[in-house]
Structures are given as structure tokens and as C-alpha cells.
Design goal:
This protein is of the alpha+beta class. It is 39% helix and 26% strand. It folds into 2 domains: 13-162, no CATH class; 170-244, Orthogonal Bundle (Arc Repressor Mutant, subunit A). It has helices spanning 25-33, 61-73, 109-115, 142-153, 170-180, 185-197, 208-215, 219-244; strands spanning 13-19, 36-44, 50-57, 85-94, 97-104, 118-126, 129-136, 156-162. Helix 7 crosses helix 8 (219-244).
């Protein structure tokens, strides 16, 4: 979840927050089931949504799935204004947990952090609270981000420091965003779900049939989404070579 600075002398600012509001499902579930959640990947999906790939340890994944379903329906014990989940998919069952895909709306703290100019670098929830570490892009005011985030989520600021070896910024991050933007939302969902679930590992941790079942789509549809996404990404990266080498703009192929 980091990128390399490409030019300039500005330094990124690292910030850390703690959230204790259990109406956030990723916080509440750790108290209810005595488990841990760890963010593996966050994929923005426009101005008001994002997909998150989250690793659960220490609990039965079906119990966690039921907890999230109750939160979404408004029937959970911690239901309230902070329920930002719109969809939860269990991608992989493991002996002591599992891998989930969350789709969240603009009430999600991580989506808001990105909107304010932060890049989450570590998110871990356990024992009824979540620790969120992020870097603030050099173009943004860290004090304004801190004030806005704390006001909206009643978050505790745990640290703020300026990095001497800034890792956030705009060049590589912007390139990745442009590359991913050539895919439709569904193509991104399927591609990242496949990656996180181990479909591209050797040997594969999950078969196409199993992955399709967990995504509630037919296996031929899964293959079509993956082939289309791979073709678009390769075509986009090939077109972008001139931009990376400084000889022209990065182009965005059509859908």
C-alpha cells in the first residue's frame, strides 16, 4: 500500500490513530469473537466506495460472516450510524480464520482517510479497537487531515512524525490508479479477489470453480472477467511505456 516518491523534496508525514467505536464492524467483531482483523489490500472504487481484502485470525470465518451479515442488515448488537459495509464475501476458509472481501461506502474510516489525502500502511483490529497507520501525501496538510478524521470518528491520535525517507507519492501511485481505472468495477473485484485468494499462486490455493462459487458467479464468467482484465492491463502497461520513460503521456485504453 505504499508508493515511491518520484522527485521533489517534500517529506511524507506518518500518522497513527486508534478507533474504539464498536459500531464499526471491523472493530466490533474483534470484541465479539475474540479475533484479529488485518488489512491486506485496499482498492478505491470511486469517490464513495472501496474494496478491502481483510485477513481474519482467531475465529471461525462462518461466525464472522454471520456477524457482518447482521451488521449490514441492521440487526447486530453494534448496529448504528457507522455501519459502512455494503457487501462481505468470504474468499478463503482457513484453519484459524479466513480471507474476506469487504465493499464499503463513504462512512468507512479507511475510505475517508484516502479521501482526505492519507495512504493507509497498516490496519489491525483486535480486542475491540483498531490501530490505523497512514502516510499523508506531501500535497496535503497533515493537521487538516488529523482534525477532520478525529472529528468524524472520535479517533485517538497516537503518533505524528515526518519521514526522512518518504514513500508516498504521486508519480507511481498515480500510475497505478490510471492502470487500475481501465478495468470495470466487477473486473477489479474478480481480479483482486483471485489474487488475494491465491488463484495465481503456484500451486494454486483455490480452484476457479471454488473461487467462482465464493463470488457467486459461474466459472465461465470468472474466466471471462480474468481474461478481459489481464488483456486490458497488459495493453495499458504496453501503451504506458512511453510515459514511464518520459517520452509521452500515459494513455488509457477504452473499455
Amino acid at each position: 500500500m505504499t508508493a515511491v516518491v518520484t522527485g521533489g523534496t517534500d517529506r511524507a508525514v506518518e500518522v497513527g490513530f486508534v478507533l474504539r467505536d464498536r459500531s464499526h464492524p471491523f472493530v466490533g467483531v474483534t470484541a465479539a469473537l475474540d479475533c484479529e482483523l488485518r488489512l491486506r489490500r485496499l482498492v478505491p472504487r470511486g469517490p464513495d466506495r472501496c474494496a478491502q481484502y481483510v485477513e481474519l485470525t482467531g475465529a471461525d470465518p462462518e461466525r464472522a460472516e454471520a456477524y457482518f451479515a447482521e451488521a449490514i442488515s441492521g440487526e447486530g448488537e453494534e448496529s448504528g450510524a457507522q455501519i459502512s459495509l455494503t457487501r462481505v464475501t468470504l474468499l478463503e476458509r482457513r484453519e484459524d480464520g479466513g480471507l474476506f472481501e469487504f465493499v464499503t461506502d463513504d462512512r468507512c474510516p479507511l475510505a475517508e482517510l484516502c479521501r482526505l489525502g492519507g495512504v493507509p500502511t497498516s490496519v489491525v483490529a483486535t480486542d475491540g479497537y483498531a490501530r490505523i497507520d497512514a502516510e499523508v501525501t506531501p500535497a496535503r496538510d497533515p493537521e487538516a487531515l488529523i482534525a477532520a478524521f478525529r472529528e468524524r470518528y472520535d479517533a485517538e491520535l497516537t503518533r505524528k512524525c515526518r519521514r526522512e525517507d518518504a514513500t508516498v507519492a504521486t508519480g507511481d501511485r498515480g500510475l497505478r490508479e490510471r492502470v487500475v481505472s481501465c478495468l470495470t468495477d466487477r473486473q477489479r473485484d474478480v481480479l483482486f479477489a483471485a489474487f488475494e485468494a491465491g488463484y495465481f499462486d503456484s500451486p494454486r490455493r483455490i480452484s476457479a470453480t471454488e473461487l467462482a462459487d465464493r463470488l457467486d458467479i459461474a466459472a465461465p464468467t470468472l474466466h471471462e472477467h480474468l481474461r478481459t482484465a489481464e488483456r486490458k492491463l497488459v495493453a495499458h502497461l504496453a501503451d504506458a511505456r512511453s510515459g514511464l520513460d518520459g517520452h509521452g503521456p500515459v494513455s488509457t485504453p477504452g473499455s
